[in-house]
């Protein structure tokens, strides 16, 4: 009987040129690494966010995981749209569990809004996953994630976070603040800064991410 592979749920957000779908993110990662993002014993899943009106685009449709009132860490979260997608992604996780993968052998994470979505998904709904990764991501100052963690008393998934210091869309300071607050609420965190990196994926961070994935999901 074939061995069931562990799962790595890789979420993405549209950017100016790429990452507008699960396949787009996969292609972008391949271009950055000059190879596919593969593991012998881990299945990498690239879901695509459904199209929806997106307020920062003046209501234009885009493949985004949830809506934002503005791209800022100092405004309310659009919880209605976040919660809808948490349920959609929960269904995806449940499907992997039914296929034989244990929850503690599943990682969730993503780039930009995908990383934010992953933090909501794991820390509010699935605190028994193996870990969370967030690249160029942040949580709002009054995030529901923080509120949920204030009520948690169990062991929390570790967070692996990367952020470019030159990011002008999602400020490096927003990522640092997110990491600091999560750490104060009991999350074990690893935060890596990348000098000169904008709102983009870099080869160095993806290589660090691959190493971290192997520590969380050893063969």
Automatic annotation (TrEMBL):
Residues 19-214 form the Phospholipase/carboxylesterase/thioesterase domain. It catalyses: S-hexadecanoyl-L-cysteinyl-[protein] + H2O = L-cysteinyl-[protein] + hexadecanoate + H(+). One of its GO terms (molecular function) is carboxylic ester hydrolase activity. Keywords: Acetylation, Cytoplasm, Hydrolase. Signal peptide: none annotated. It is found in: Cytoplasm, Cytosol. Its main location: cytoplasm. It comes from the Eukaryota. Its EC number is 3.1.2.22. Belongs to the AB hydrolase superfamily. AB hydrolase 2 family. Palmitoyl thioesterase that catalyzes depalmitoylation of CGAS and KCNMA1. Acts as a regulator of innate immunity by mediating depalmitoylation of CGAS, thereby preventing CGAS homodimerization and cyclic GMP-AMP synthase activity. Does not exhibit phospholipase nor triacylglycerol lipase activity, able to hydrolyze only short chain substrates due to its shallow active site. This is Lysophospholipase-like protein 1. It comes from Neophocaena asiaeorientalis asiaeorientalis (Yangtze finless porpoise).
